[in-house]
Write a sequence for this structure.
């Protein structure tokens, strides 16, 4: 699995969905927009319903319920994670990333354009919620 770089400052949910589906950001964005989901909609990064709906539309199986993060070891081989969780004006916000374990190697695919590497292994610095 490869990281997909977000093409909009608030496009992390679309980029994470694209990475899990194995498609480009542009393809995921077209699908999201056709569903009425836009990167600028704050619900995309303060609620889970839009991303979960987009993933299902892209053919990615999602668990019936959200699962709270307990440890890196307890994660399935592919997981959508919320990091950089914070409250702004009484509303939660976060940044979407993808956890992937392949060939015994765990890593986080972070779509943020400004990162030196979008493949992260600095698990101690990443604080999923």
């Amino acid at each position: 699995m490869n990281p997909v770089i977000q093409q909009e400052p608030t496009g992390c949910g679309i980029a994470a969905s694209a990475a899990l589906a194995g498609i480009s950001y542009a393809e995921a964005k077209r699908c999201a927009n056709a569903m009425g989901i836009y990167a600028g909609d704050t619900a995309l990064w303060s609620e889970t319903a839009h991303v979960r709906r987009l993933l299902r539309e892209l053919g990615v199986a999602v668990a019936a319920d959200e699962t709270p993060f307990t440890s890196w070891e307890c994660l399935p081989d592919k997981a959508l994670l919320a990091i950089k969780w914070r409250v702004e004006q009484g509303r939660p916000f976060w940044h979407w990333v993808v956890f992937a374990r392949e060939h015994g190697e765990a890593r986080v695919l972070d779509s943020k354009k400004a990162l030196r590497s979008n493949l992260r292994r600095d698990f101690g610095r990443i604080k999923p919620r």
Q: What stands out?
A: The two ends are 22 Å apart (CA to CA). The longest strand covers residues 91-102. Helices lie at 12-21, 25-34, 49-57. DSSP finds three helices and four strands in the chain.
